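Protocol step 4 of 6: structure prediction from sequence.
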Amino acid sequence: MLIIMWLKLLILILGVIVGTLFVRYSYQLTQLFGHNSYAERYIGEGGTYSMWKLLGIAVIIFAAWFALS
């Protein structure tokens, strides 16, 4: 039980770090991987940057949900 608690805490910390990096460095990620045509089409112009930010927020929410369940 104690190991599971520590594992959940580690996943929470890593999820928050990775999610924050996605949000913070969305411009650099777009420059590295290129523009996403689906994001540009459905979110609008600049949609790739928003996609990285939404993905980062989703990672943070999923990590928190997993850790608190």
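Step 5 (inspection) to follow. The helical segments are 2-24, 26-33, 37-42, 47-68.
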